[in-house]
# Entry
Amino acid sequence: MDLKEFDYELPQSLIAAYPSRERESSRLLVVDRRTGALTHSVFAELGNFLGPGDLLVLNDTKVFPARLRGAKESGGKVEALLIERFPEKDRSLWIAMVDAAKKPAVGSRLGFGAELAAEVIGDLGRGRFALEFHHQGDFDALLEALGEPPLPPYVRRKRATEGLDRDRYQTVYAAHPGAIAAPTAGLHFTPELLGRLRAKGIDHALLTLHVGPGTFQPVRAHQVEDHRMEGERYVVPAHTAEKIRRAKAAGRRVVAVGSTTTRTLEWVARQRGEVVADEGIARLYIRPGDSFRVLDALITNFHLPASTPLILIAAFAGLDLVRRAYAEAIKERYRFYSYGDAMLIL
# Structure
């Protein structure tokens, strides 16, 4: 399929620069795959569209303050987005995306305040570098103090709101640090909403996929099939796998919250034949024509044009229906992207 099939025009004013006042107050567009019906609601009313026995599967990865701003030895500004830490006990070694007017040379040093510096020890290509950090005291504590939430570049503000982002660019059930982007479909949940759903007989289970650059890597191939996904680390606990197997065996719906949860479940099912306790690196790229072995319904945000999450949504709901749903959302002025509104696909 041509990538242009997944393009659409979005007014800049509909890109959400800030989260909704309350998590549950986000709007919810309900899409029925069987009838094609589109229903407008709010996220707080999610339970009206789910039933007893439905199982929500949530991604409990935690976003860490991965963005560091500093200066090169030359004095030029530099920004580092930490992606993944090497498993070295005595050294702080990271793969990072580095943004500067001129790329840093191997052997040069980057400064991030008086307490933290990094030596560039390798150029990995595609704007990625291996960095060794030098510091006094605990690195994680320094990163927490000096780092910023790694908001996507399309979130543009007229005022700084780092304190707000540290809270709201994180799900309320986030538990395992490692993501450089939030699993945004989960941002709308509150403990109270999860409690109301549980009281109605709608259970939930947790897995972990640390969202990395692969989720947001642009599709540069003209043909959708030619794109390749980067791997992202995941863990599916035994109790989560057991809940999913029981739900499927009983004919109950499994509702994935977000594209990251979707890719994790479908990856494990394809590799293992069913969802079992597992961990590793998921590399699944879902596109139209692919079958779904686990999902029965999906909660998702509104995604960028020609992006892999949008292609996944089209694979699940059908491209024509997704186009119609997005056109309706634009007409009704829904808020788009990470801090935007949500869609439930049944």
